[in-house]
């Protein structure tokens, strides 16, 4: 996570040379994650293959998640999507969210919509719908941004609002998150987000 992917690879190589220290499934999660955060695509793919072929370890969701993250960060989102489609198990929200984030980073709108449909089938799509709306925003498709956000708001109707409490001098104060108290309409939020995006350039 700190960009020291080559150091992680060197340590892994030393471990491979020590026959008494065989890498296990947790080791491969660590090294694949290091490759993902350092952009070491070919190295990560090679290690993933050696995990299966050389060490006879069966990849689980964590390993597939690392590979999807690796490819997504590198802009190889179509290849990542193919891996998700051919996994021997159903992808979880973390893997699909990582893939959707890759689509957002590299402005792949069509694939992002396909990934969101998979997320919607899990019925846990709220935070990832925001990613899709950001993809639309990058394409300046503001009407679609509004539609995604409004659809997300409708899905949240009937759910209890988030609450938090704080005690000050023996008095408990409660804070409740309610969308209806927001004085700014959705359209104004979209304009503000667009201005924020422009200010980054």
From TrEMBL:
The keyword Repeat applies. Gene3D superfamilies: Tetratricopeptide repeat domain. It comes from the Eukaryota. The keyword Ribonucleoprotein does not apply. PPR repeats lie at residues 24-54. Keywords: Repeat. Pfam families: E_motif, PPR. This is Pentatricopeptide repeat-containing protein.
């Amino acid at each position: 996570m700190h960009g020291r992917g080559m150091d992680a690879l060197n340590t892994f190589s030393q471990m491979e040379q020590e026959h008494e220290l065989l890498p296990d499934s947790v080791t491969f999660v660590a090294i694949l994650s290091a490759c993902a955060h350092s952009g070491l695509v070919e190295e990560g793919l090679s290690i993933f293959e050696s995990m299966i072929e050389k060490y006879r370890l069966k990849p689980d969701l964590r390993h597939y998640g690392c590979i999807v993250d690796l490819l997504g960060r590198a802009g190889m989102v179509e290849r990542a999507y193919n891996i998700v489609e051919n996994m021997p198990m159903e992808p979880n929200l973390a893997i699909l969210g990582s893939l959707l984030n890759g689509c957002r980073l590299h402005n792949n709108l069509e694939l992002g919509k396909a990934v969101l449909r998979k997320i919607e089938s899990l019925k846990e799509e709220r935070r990832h719908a925001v990613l899709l709306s950001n993809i639309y925003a990058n394409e300046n498709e503001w009407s679609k941004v509004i539609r995604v956000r409004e659809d997300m708001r409708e899905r949240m109707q009937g759910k209890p609002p988030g609450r938090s409490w704080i005690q000050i001098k023996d008095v408990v104060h409660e804070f409740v998150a309610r969308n209806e108290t927001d004085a700014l309409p959705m359209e104004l939020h979209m304009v503000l987000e667009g201005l924020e995006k422009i200010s980054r350039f």
